[in-house]
Design brief:
Elements: H1 22-30, E1 34-36, E2 45-47, E3 52-54, E4 57-65, E5 68-77, H2 83-163, E6 168-173, E7 178-181, H3 183-191, H4 202-206, H5 208-223, E8 228-236, E9 239-252, E10 256-266, H6 268-299
Antiparallel strand pairs: 1-4, 2-3, 4-5, 6-7, 6-10, 8-9, 9-10
């Protein structure tokens, strides 16, 4: 029940009906009016401003629009309906049903409009979020591009620095994998038939035994944070080559020592010059000693 007149809602025993339930439900299900004109006195109470009286006549008329039940109009009267009153109600039936249909359509349209507005607002919010995301993405891409350019510029400087020298330079990580090697070192290994490249495990290049016996201890010292230098002699044919190596730990602010770098300089010319000077000094000293002996003999 959605509306009443001359009867209080408190007098209604039932406020909702299913199809086929009671007079109202039967009228809706059959789509035909139900008219009773001899009701028992206790069946319906009609209230006025000053009294309540029993109705004797009941009409349950389905409100039809395009063969669709829009509702049921129930009328209780003191006297039976006259033919002209029934005709009037039949005529009003279509108007009321059409009005109810329009109200439902308007309500449905209103709900659709509200849903459309809600979806529009959501789309606007999503568009704004997408716009912000696009701006952030563009900013991120610009930062990445800037970082890439900086990295390329930095790499150019690094390549220029490490490759424009006769010294050998390389860096390894704590797994003894080569992270970086300059062209001088690569050329030196290439002459020995070894193609040196980044990412190679160093023991596989210089040999496991040589790595364990000579180099591992030096790298581990650098991994422990020590900086040091050493000179190494290497025999190549009849020549003695001397290399001075500087070993440095490579740090990361977050993780500490993450590897080590090794810079080796060929000091053979300098070392051979020092050795030659020492030899000459020894020869001079020997000559002085021989001269002193000769002078002693001449004095005798």
């Amino acid at each position: 029940a959605v509306a009443t007149y001359a009867v209080g809602l408190e007098h209604l025993n039932q406020k909702a009906f299913r199809f086929g339930e009671g007079f109202i439900g039967q009228a809706a299900e059959n789509q035909k009016p139900i008219y009773l004109d001899d009701l028992p006195p206790q069946n319906a109470i009609i209230a006025s401003g000053i009294a309540e009286m029993s109705g004797r006549c009941l009409l349950a008329m389905p409100l039809l629009f395009n063969d669709s039940v829009q509702g049921v109009l129930e009328i209780i009267r003191f006297h039976p309906l006259q033919p002209r009153e029934m005709n009037l109600l039949t005529t009003l039936n279509r108007t009321v049903a059409a009005t109810l249909q329009n109200i439902r359509n308007n309500e449905h349209n209103r709900q659709l409009l509200e849903e459309l507005q809600r979806q529009t607002e959501q789309m606007r919010a999503q568009e704004e979020e997408m716009r912000q995301n696009m701006e952030e993405l563009q900013s991120t891409q610009e930062q990445i591009e800037h970082s890439r350019e900086e990295l390329l510029r930095y790499k150019t400087f690094v390549d220029s620095f490490i490759n424009n020298t006769d010294d050998t330079i390389f860096i390894i990580d704590r797994n003894y994998d080569i992270l970086l090697a300059n062209n001088t070192l690569k050329d030196r290994f290439r002459k020995e038939g070894i193609e040196l490249r980044e990412g190679v495990h160093l023991p596989d290049v210089i040999g496991q035994e040589h790595f364990l016996n000579v180099w591992k201890e030096r790298y581990d010292r650098a991994f422990a944070g020590e900086r040091f230098e050493f000179t190494q002699e290497r025999q190549v044919g009849e020549r003695s080559l001397y290399v001075k190596a500087s070993v440095f730990p490579v740090y990361n602010e977050q993780y500490g020592v993450i590897g080590c770098s090794v810079v080796s300089k060929d000091i053979s010319e300098y070392k051979n010059s020092v050795i030659r000077v020492q030899e000459l000094e020894e020869e001079v000293e020997n000559l002085r000693s021989e001269n002193a002996k000769l002078r002693d003999k001449g004095a005798q």
